Amino acid sequence: MTLSGKGDPRERREHAKNYRHEVDAKRPWLFPVLIGAAVLVVAAVVVYALLTGVGA
């Protein structure tokens, strides 16, 4: 039981899964863009650390 009164966790999980599939179908480019942005941020942090000598 949840505080909102929507008690069946399986039903909520199924609804969330269906919603996620609908969003992915509308914007198939979104996930690769987010992954690419994350890779760029990590690469920038590594390059910054190497150039400034952080941790040495």
Backbone shape:
elongated
Describe the largest sheet: none
Helix content: over 70%
Number of helices: 2
User: Which structural class is indicated by helix and strand composition?
Assistant: mainly alpha
Which spans of ≥5 residues are poorly predicted at pLDDT below 50?
A: none
Mind telling me the C-alpha Rg? Answer: 20 Å
Distance between the termini: 52 Å
Number of strands: 0
Topology pattern, helix = H, strand = E: HH
Can you give the mean pLDDT? 87
Strand content: under 5%
Structural write-up:
The protein has 56 residues and is mainly alpha-helical. The protein is 73% helix and 0% strand. It has two helices and no strands.
List the helices and strands and how they pair.
Elements: H1 9-26, H2 30-52
